[in-house]
Amino acid sequence: MKKLIVYQIDSFTKEKFKGNPAGVVVNADGLKDSEMQQIARELNNSETAFLFSPDSDDCDGVIRYFSPTIEVPICGHATIAAMYAKALEDNLDSCVLKMKTKIGILPFEIINENGDYQVLMTQGRFELSPTFDDDTEKRMVAALGLNYDDIDTKCPIQIASTGHSKVMIGIKSREKLNTLSPKYNDLAELSTQINCNGYFVFTFDSDNEDILTYGRMFAPAIGINEDPVTGNANGPLAGYLIQNNIVAFKNNEFEFNGRQGEKINRLGTITVKVLVENDKPALIQIKGEAVVIFRTEIEI
């Protein structure tokens, strides 16, 4: 029998039962893929992170991520949760951990402030796909429950990625954002054709000068009808905004706060930072807080 130390953590918030919940297994050495998949299904969060000892000299550890149905290459909120759990478990001071993921070795910074932690996650290389053909775009807009009048005309509909791709859809109204009722089966079917599982609908319609965007993220093709607060959507969003010249930046840097989860009462806030080189995003980072819901043990 092996005793697994398991956390349930809400990321991108300090208020319990808000933000985005993730499971974390901090001592996953020896687990089989099938066992990780079963644990992720049992915990039933959008993702569960599994932490392993380093398997080479060039990293401080290995991290893998499972949704209830499949393994995913990277996950923002589960990274925040995993590094927060590790910091608590190991009583860490401020440090940078180089963690091996399915998209390469990434530096995750743990920031110790007044006995609590924030986590700064460096995401993978930014990529932006061309716009869609008219038929695909029309089907996507309809499946999301939108009309073309709702679309923000300065925001082209494109796939953006920092390791786990999302479709970016900018709309004019926060009221419309919060009344969306997508056709999940249609979105899932589209996902197989466009090779992208997530749809991030966002708006600049904010009544708070510290919050640039509000968003919602739908990924029914991987069993997540709606994700509360998504690091792998807000991070790519920053690169998308820079590369399409939608926002201005100074001194080759751009930083903003994105808010998500309002409609489903799991509100959370992500800080996104971008370093810009030659007017294109060169480095994207997300920063977030977290709070523990429970720590327990599983024997398998």
Automatic annotation (TrEMBL):
SUPFAM superfamilies in UniProt: Diaminopimelate epimerase-like
Keywords, in A-Z order: Isomerase
Name of one Pfam family that matches: PhzC-PhzF
UniProt-recorded Gene Ontology molecular function terms: isomerase activity
Active site: E47
Key word Isomerase present: yes
Gene Ontology CC terms, in alphabetical order: cytoplasm
PANTHER family membership: BIOSYNTHESIS PROTEIN, PUTATIVE-RELATED, PHENAZINE BIOSYNTHESIS PROTEIN
Similarity comment: Belongs to the PhzF family.
Name listed for the protein in its UniProt record: PhzF family isomerase
